[in-house]
Structures are given as structure tokens and as C-alpha cells.
Amino acid sequence: MKGIFMKTVLKWNPYLDCELSAQEGWLEELSREGLSVRCRFGPLALCDRGDPHPARRFRIEPARTWASASDPPARALTDLYQEAGWTYLRRLPGERGELFYTDDPSAPEPYTDPETRALSLTGLRRRFGRRCLSGALSMLLLLFDHFVAFPMAFLNARPFSFGVWDLLLVLWYALVLFYLVQEWRGMRRTCRRLELGVSAPLPPPRKMRVLKAAMDALCLAMWIILLALIIAVLPLLILEVPL
Description:
Blueprint lengths: L1 H5 L1 E5 L7 H13 L2 E7 L2 E6 L7 E6 L12 H9 L3 E5 L5 E6 L11 H7 L1 H34 L8 H32 L10 H35 L3
Antiparallel strand pairs: 1-3, 2-3, 4-6, 5-6
Helix pairs in contact: 4-6, 5-6, 6-7
């Protein structure tokens, strides 16, 4: 058991989902350290320690629409990558893309034309846009329920009565929406650069890394608080259940 924990490392992913080149570079950095990602829990990645692969390269192919989430990518796609010396590894969380890798330094890049690469990202850009729009609509409905419907129906109170916690809730929703918008804008900016023939990716903005770190820390704190509440309340509920 001790050996298992010594070979397992928990890493934080500092990049946005839309920053595909940064995600690829992060995986290559882990490979140089001898780490391979076993599974991901949001921004946290559980890695296995093994032999370093200093020459390993990763490329993310935007996911197409498959029959089910468990299906492998289209055979034509994997054959195309294998002919170029790339090996299929797995699907990324959230069906953002298919992950390929190669240890051959002479293996050609899957895309040599920036415009073709931009076309391959069209579906992923639309998915980010739908995610942003659905997130905005969901937050508007939640805010309406919290500040209008619930107070009038259950508390006999006036709508839009703000307290400290209500203000924090609004700020949290605004932060999440800003985060989603930045992801969509980042993907759109990447596609536009490729359409103009610029293949070099933009460096990840430091401000967004700080924002992502803050949001990931807040989410982790919320989950810890929720788990603590469940652990504290569950014994009381069990004791109150008649035998």
C-alpha cells in the first residue's frame, strides 16, 4: 500500500479547457517528470509515477459526435494519426477531445495547415458558446428563484432583499459567468488566429491563471464544507430513525 501512494501524485491543472496548446504542453511537462495522468477530478489530476519521456509530444484532436461516450474515435481518424506515427491514448473529460501522443521526434504534426486546424476547432468553439449561453440562462433562473420567487412564496418577504450572503452569491455567479465567457473568447481568438494563418498559439494569460486558481480553491472549499456538513448531520439523522 505504501508503494502505491509513493507512485501516485496529485497535480493541479493551471490552464483553461480552451487553451489546447497549453494543455498539451502541460502533459508534456508531466511526461518529462515521469508522470502520466490516470484520471481527473475537475482541475485536479491523479498521476502515476514512472519512467520519464523527455521527447513525448501530445496533441488534442477536438471530439466529434460519436454514438456514445464509451465509443472510441472514428477509425479513419485513428488510422490517420497512426500513419503519421501518433498513438491514441484516451478521451479527455467532458468530451473535449481525443488525446494522441508520440515518442518519435521525427513524427510530423497532425496539422500543417492553420486553416484546416481552425476548421477542426469549429465544433468545439460552438460547444463552448452553448456552454456559456446555457450557463448564463441557468444563473438568471437561479437568481430569479433566489431573490424573487422564493422570498415571495415562502418567506412573505419583498423580492430583491439583499444580505451579505446574497451579495456573495451574486458575486460568485458573476465570477462563474465571467469564467465561461473567457473560455469561449479564448477559443474564438484561437480560431481567428488560425484562420489568418498564424499557427503559433498565444501564451496563456497570467490573469486567467490567477482567476482559475481562485475559482478552483473556492470550489474545493465548498466541497469540503459540504462534506463536513454531511458527516456532521448524518449521525444525527441515523440516531433519529426508529428501529
